[in-house]
Amino acid sequence: MEEAKDSVGAVLPQHAHFTAPLALAGGSTLPAFDLVYETYGELNAARSNAVLVCHALSGNHHVAGHYAGQPRSGGWWDNLVGPGKPLDTRKFFVVGVNNLGGCHGSTGPMTVDPASGRPWGADFPVVVVEDWVAAQARLADRLGIDAWAAVIGGSLGGMQALQWALEFPQRVRHALVIASAPKLTAQNIAFNEVARQAILTDPDFHGGHYYTHGVVPARGLRLARMIGHITYLSDDKMAEKFGRRLRQGVLQFGYGIDFEIESYLRHQGDRFAGHFDANTYLIATKALDYFDPARDHGGNLVAALARARAKFLVVSFTTDWRFAPERSREIVYGLLHNGRDVSYAEIDCSGGHDSFLLDDPHYHAVMRAYFEGIAT
Amino acid sequence: MTNVLGRYDFELIAKWIRPGEKVLDLGCGDGSLLRFLREDKGVLGYGVDNDPANVLACVGNGVNVIQIDLEAGLSGFADGFFDHVVMSLSLQTVRHTERLLAEMLRVGRQAVVSFPNFGHRSHREAIARGRMPVSKSLPYQWFNSPNVRFFTMADFEALCAERGIAIRERHAFDEGRPVTEDPNLNASIGVYRLGRAAAPPAG
Fold first, then answer.
1. CATH no. for residue B20?
2. pLDDT tens column, B22-76
């Protein structure tokens, strides 16, 4: 296969094992853990060009490139990361990591609990954004990265970028917080709760120990993904993509598939349920719901952000109603009133929340310009 | 549009701003004024612009820029956070002029505004000939102008007097040169430093 010039090409995931216990926000301690990660580009001699890419709900460490012999295995942010792309791997050493509690190789519910000898399942502690950042910091130590040139993420990934700037102010020079929020609204938590209920009430869930029953709660996970997908797209985008188009040209007068949108949702749900772990999904939605750096400051976000020292780029999308521009502006004003350097772009893109994964030309031009400013 | 005035506008504004101040530049364009103020005065500056091309240019210039619509006001900004709020050659492009002026002096101790003077001789002559003026300071045709408010320096000063806005300093220019005699007739650009008028004595 001919390699695209701006692709990082074939990549290999790597493993790091950590033996020092990790105290978690929920009160428990992980005695040891593994993180799986990928890197692209070269760490410079000064170790000053490292960029951490944090993944969102269903993402993982495979940010860019593809796996050898699997041409359809492109990374989830491959349009952003690569030689000559906005996050240019000729200038930056880019790190993607699968978060704790994940299902792509890092320690999580599918991992065997050394204490019981069987998979953790639902007994895996609920880990949150703070725990992810703490684990990522261990990886940074391992890679010899004292300070990131930038930490970037979209949605739940943006929360990690923000948390990095608060938890390790001296270790983050720039934070790029994309399509994110300083905390979820009640409506946003409500969508997560519907997703969780779909999983928890699936008869195949077995209290989270479905691995030992040789089944997966695919129906629940499928429903969870379907509702997620609805909220990630805008009304306009759905109308444009599917409208009221019929799958077979005529109404079926039954409960099979009439409309294209039904077919799309079922397909997305099936695909997701086939490769993602339900326990990981539960954990990640809780991490979203719990994130609220202002909680320990009486709800005062300005006070919560006072610790940050990084320079910020905050980006939102006009049609994103799950992580609306207003939420991003809260972050912007919170930083501004602390006298932090912050820029804010509100991108006019029809893609809803998923816009952050698209290659909208203006969005990518802003990202490119910001990264060029970091590189020089 | 900051560039239209060129350096003399920057230098005038820079004279009013002390090192290390917090400055908000409304309608900041490509961020050149803020970049100049940061390099010259070490200010902590933020620009506001709603044009995607300008936001991109500011990011490229390493200038803080916040993309919001000025017509929606400055409600996200805390009272008195800024030392100076600057609006260079943009006041005539917003519809809610009065509210925005009040907002500028809410979030900033002082405001600096500049605008094209509709009362300039050449503009009056154009009107007398029965045509809308097109000039260096008003370079658009009536049908494609981004300007939505047309006012003279005298109009502006009357509004300030009526709304309790103190004019601390006024400068007038034509063709980049200072104008002292009858600015409302001879100046194409007015530049004002504004403050909140002292509260009227109680009782």
1. 3.40.50.150
2. 999 999 999 999 999 999 899 999 999 999 999 999 999 999 999 999 988 899 9
Using a 10 angstrom Cβ sphere, with 0-12 exposed, 13-18 middle and 19 or more buried, the burial of residue A247 is middle
Number of domains in chain B: 1
Amino acid in position A276: F
Q: What is the DSSP letter of B43?
A: -
Any catalytic annotation for residue A353? yes
Size of interface A-B (CB pairs under 8 A): 54
Which residues of chain B lie closer than 8 angstroms to A348, CB-CB? 52
Q: Does B201 map to a domain?
A: no
Q: Enumerate the β-bridge partners of residue B110.
A: B84, B195
**Spatial separation of the C-alpha atoms in residues A282 and A276, rounded to whole Å:** 11
What distance in Å separates residue B167's CA from the closest CA in chain A? 27
Is there a domain that residue B64 lies in? Answer: yes
From chain B, the residues in CB contact with A370 under 8 A are: 59
Residue B36 is assigned to a structural domain of this protein: yes
Q: Which of A344, A349, A364, A368 best probes binding to B when mutated, by most B CB atoms within 10 angstroms?
A: A344
CA pair distance A370, A50, nearest whole angstrom? 15
Q: Kindly give the confidence (pLDDT) of every residue in chain A, 376 residues in length, as a single tens digit, with 9 standing for 90 and above.
A: 567 889 999 999 999 999 999 999 999 999 999 999 999 999 999 999 999 999 999 999 999 999 999 989 999 999 999 999 999 999 999 999 999 999 999 999 999 998 899 999 989 999 999 999 999 999 999 999 999 999 999 999 999 999 999 999 999 999 999 999 999 999 999 999 999 999 999 999 999 999 999 999 999 999 999 999 999 999 999 999 999 999 999 999 999 999 999 999 999 999 999 999 999 999 999 999 999 999 999 999 999 999 999 999 999 999 999 999 999 999 999 999 999 999 999 999 999 999 999 999 999 999 999 999 999 6
**Residue B154 distance to chain A (closest CA, Å):** 36
* Domain span including residue B149: 4-196
From the list B44, B46, B67, which residue is nearest A345 (CB)?
B67
Decide if A155 is catalytic: yes
Amino acid occupying residue B136:
K
Instruction: Answer whether 0.90 is exceeded by the pTM.
Output: yes
Say if B122 falls within a structural domain: yes
Burial A44-79 (b: 16+ CB within 10 A, else e): eeeeebbbbbbbbbbbbbbbbbbeeeeeeeebbbbb
Burial A303-334 (b: 16+ CB within 10 A, else e): bbbbebbbbbbbbbbbbbbbbbbebbbbbbbb
